[in-house]
């Protein structure tokens, strides 16, 4: 788990780090330059938030789809168990 925390490519960790950092105001800059710096960092934060939201929605959707597939497999297994009496065992058919 420690290696995941030290990995900067993890979107969640980068988002948490960016949220923890307060934007610094540089001294001796004109207001236009200051606004540009804030807009650039805001667009980066927006992009990171969007990536984080997309990843979390994708993760939850994948979990729901996996649960649906498991339910379908359970139903098929129950149907197969109910119909099992109709057919001869494979071992007997092969002569084992």
What's the overall geometry?
rod-shaped
Number of helices: 4
Helix/strand/pairing category = mainly alpha
Helical content (DSSP H or I, runs of 4+)? over 70%
What is the H/E order? HHHH
Flag low-confidence runs. 1-6
Number of strands: 0
Kindly provide the radius of gyration, computed on alpha-carbon positions and rounded to a whole number of angstroms: 28 Å
The N- and C-terminal alpha carbons lie at a distance of 50 Å
Give the percentage of residues in beta strands.
under 5%
Q: Main sheet?
A: none
The overall pLDDT average reads 77
Pathway: Protein modification; protein ubiquitination
Keywords: Cell cycle, Cell division, Centromere, Chromosome, Cytoplasm, Kinetochore, Mitosis, Nucleus, Ubl conjugation pathway
Protein name: Anaphase-promoting complex subunit 16
Family: Belongs to the APC16 family.
Structural commentary:
- The chain has 96 residues and is mainly α.
- The chain is built from four helices and no strands.
Summary?
The protein has 4 helices and no strands. With 96 residues, the protein is mainly alpha-helical. Helix 2 (11-20) runs antiparallel to helix 3.
């Amino acid at each position: 788990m420690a290696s995941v925390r030290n990995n900067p490519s993890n979107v969640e960790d980068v988002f948490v780090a960016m949220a923890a950092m307060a934007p610094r105001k540089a001294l001796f800059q004109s207001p236009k330059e200051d606004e540009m710096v804030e807009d650039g960092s805001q667009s980066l934060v927006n992009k990171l938030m969007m990536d984080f939201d997309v990843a979390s929605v994708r993760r939850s959707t994948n979990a729901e789809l996996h649960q649906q597939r498991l339910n379908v497999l359970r139903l098929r297994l129950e149907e197969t168990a109910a119909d099992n009496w109709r057919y001869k065992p494979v071992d007997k058919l092969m002569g084992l």
